[in-house]
Amino acid sequence: MSDILQERQSSYLKLTINRPEASNALSLDLFGELSEILSENREDPDLKSVVVTGQGNKCFAAGGDVKELNNVRSNEEINQMISIGRQALNTIRFYPVPVIALINGHALGGGAELALSCDYRIAVESASLGFSQSKLNITTAWGGVIDLIDLVGNSKALLILLEGNAFSAEKAKEWGMVDWVVPALEDGLKTLDSKLDSLDRCSSKVIRGYKSIINQNRKKHHRSLEKIETETFIQTWSDADHWNTVEKLFSQSPS
């Protein structure tokens, strides 16, 4: 079964992360599939928006697939992990039409990076967001710190990143990380339909024209900071503090 479900509805494409048994964790294969699907559809003249959500009502995406990433040790493997994840999220960031995250549940670690790579975010009240990387003694790998700074500013970004705590959808909206908060998923779908209707009233040339300008501005910030984010992640991922933390967490987990 595919890790991503595709549903085409007139002018928009809905992509659902389909790993509920793993809390919709982000595997490298999933990232590759996401990049491939988006690349296949980017030139479709009838496409006006993309929606990304998670299967079920518990998790949007619970972060990177820990069981898989725990085996990433060599420099070659680390760089591959960074490259595959960042390529997928950059495809979202710089996509020619708007990408909307429908946050149906928890978006943590890499899941928060995925949510913030999108242009808009709709979250249910029960959802939570958090950059939990610091609790594993690592930093972000896929551009999340850059998006966070753009949305909330340096001071709040540093607080969020260092504390590593999950916080409510309402708090995320208050801080500028979420655009709309809705009581339940059904309400989120109604809000989504409303936003999609607004986009549908615009011509494809207008949508793609404005999006190209936004993309160029966003690319400038990412291109200037990607290198230092990569270097910092490699240093922290390879450090004994990270692996000691991982070993401790795994030893405490039920077998």
UniProtKB/TrEMBL annotation:
PROSITE patterns: ENOYL_COA_HYDRATASE (PS00166). GO terms for molecular function: catalytic activity. GO terms for biological process: fatty acid beta-oxidation. Signal peptide: none annotated. Pfam families: ECH_1. Belongs to the enoyl-CoA hydratase/isomerase family. This is Enoyl-CoA hydratase/isomerase family protein. It comes from marine metagenome.
